[in-house]
């Protein structure tokens, strides 16, 4: 069975007023448009053309959630649990109502995710930078009292990143936060060389989130700029935040988020620190294949897989092994099932194939992303 899926953009405050409308070739609504969800998650199941929503078809069994994401300003710094951590947290909070503001765990699943840039520039914070590199960055900020205190904490013993992040978010470090942010603004105005882009990026975040300790947490993170077609996989425990741009995002079907700054929402510092992975290093950027080719974005999870296919008035046949989505992002695309059933897929919508389809033919001129369950043998 082939179904046509669409959804209404979610109006989170950080959403772009133009990126999704420009992608789909329509007039903007005038408000922020942040995410379009293509899945059966109860928070916002996709609409099925003709009648109903996708959860009516799947019974809520889809292992992944596919999204279009359009950010005009930074999302919260956040981290997601492993499946073991999610199950333990869900069990601990079983007595809390689903809407209780003190609840951290909305389900018992992990939430690894993959983001692929659709805009020419997608800016993000991904993972923690090696401490020795951050100390070199802080050298650029001078020797004010706040900067010196931050350097002293990072130059200590033990798990200094976990300790420093906990201190920054505790409420006891506001004077240091304000001082460091002032130093960032000063340095960003004349920055050049290795740290110029990072300092300008963090200074821009500070303009949106004045006084938020997450701005200083952002200084500890890798500043990553993706070009169109490039992707980044974010594993459980990895601190991250999207800053700006348009992308395709796919994740395990979960809503478990622990926040670490750049948000007015609740931050549970002890729980955040308990699941945070403070292993440092660059997060690998996944590069697209050559033009007119299929790009596979390898991920070490069984929940989802994602391919990017460029079409030039040709046809590509793919096997269906589980519930499969074809999301059109450029051009005019048609998806056909094995029995000849056809679905035109306007940009910004999805053709959904149930597993009994076995194979699909994708034709036309444009670009699609194919989402499906991942390899069952993949490591979680």
From TrEMBL:
<dbReference type="InterPro" id="IPR016305">
    <property type="entry name" value="Mannose-6-P_Isomerase"/>
</dbReference>
<feature type="domain" description="Phosphomannose isomerase type I catalytic">
    <location>
        <begin position="2"/>
        <end position="130"/>
    </location>
</feature>
<keyword id="KW-0413">Isomerase</keyword>
<dbReference type="InterPro" id="IPR014710">
    <property type="entry name" value="RmlC-like_jellyroll"/>
</dbReference>
<dbReference type="InterPro" id="IPR011051">
    <property type="entry name" value="RmlC_Cupin_sf"/>
</dbReference>
<dbReference type="InterPro" id="IPR046457">
    <property type="entry name" value="PMI_typeI_cat"/>
</dbReference>
<feature type="region of interest" description="Disordered">
    <location>
        <begin position="24"/>
        <end position="52"/>
    </location>
</feature>
<dbReference type="InterPro" id="IPR018050">
    <property type="entry name" value="Pmannose_isomerase-type1_CS"/>
</dbReference>
<protein>
    <recommendedName>
        <fullName>mannose-6-phosphate isomerase</fullName>
        <ecNumber>5.3.1.8</ecNumber>
    </recommendedName>
</protein>
<comment type="similarity">
    <text>Belongs to the mannose-6-phosphate isomerase type 1 family.</text>
</comment>
<dbReference type="GO" id="GO:0004476">
    <property type="term" value="F:mannose-6-phosphate isomerase activity"/>
</dbReference>
<keyword id="KW-0862">Zinc</keyword>
<dbReference type="Pfam" id="PF20511">
    <property type="entry name" value="PMI_typeI_cat"/>
</dbReference>
<dbReference type="InterPro" id="IPR001250">
    <property type="entry name" value="Man6P_Isoase-1"/>
</dbReference>
<keyword id="KW-0479">Metal-binding</keyword>
